[in-house]
Design a protein that fits this description.
single chain; 140 residues; alpha+beta; GMP Synthetase, Chain A, domain 3; 2 domains; three-stranded antiparallel beta sheet; three-stranded mixed beta sheet; 3 helices; 6 strands; 31% helix; 36% strand; elongated; OsmC/Ohrsf
Length: 140
Amino acid sequence: MECKVRWTGDGMSFLAETGSNHTIVMDGPPDAGGRNLAPRPMEMVLAGTGGCTAFDVVMILQKGRHEVTNCEVTLKADRADTDPKVFTRINFHYRVTGRNLKADVVERAVKLSKEKYCSASIMLGKTAEITHSIEIVDAA
């Protein structure tokens, strides 16, 4: 996996080009020379982690032939007050929608993501206390 990040020369705006040929713009806040036109790099880390675990949960449920129709993960994070301002606490709230989904099945999918599959959350768990909550919505 590779990624190239370059400064656009405009304030604190950066352009990332991924190995899969996608482009992402990142920007800083106005008080740091940015123009607030795009997500901050640490927001991208959090968003990527949410995407990683949501992907896992949906894939695990689908492989188990469960009728999952939607999966949302809301992440709320705290960061250290001093540099490096790493994440210190992150709560993952899963809102999984489907037909006849059982709590133990969804909990197992989240646990597998947390402990085995989601590289991003496992990596962040080295500096942050990670908690999970689950909400199941019946689509019937």
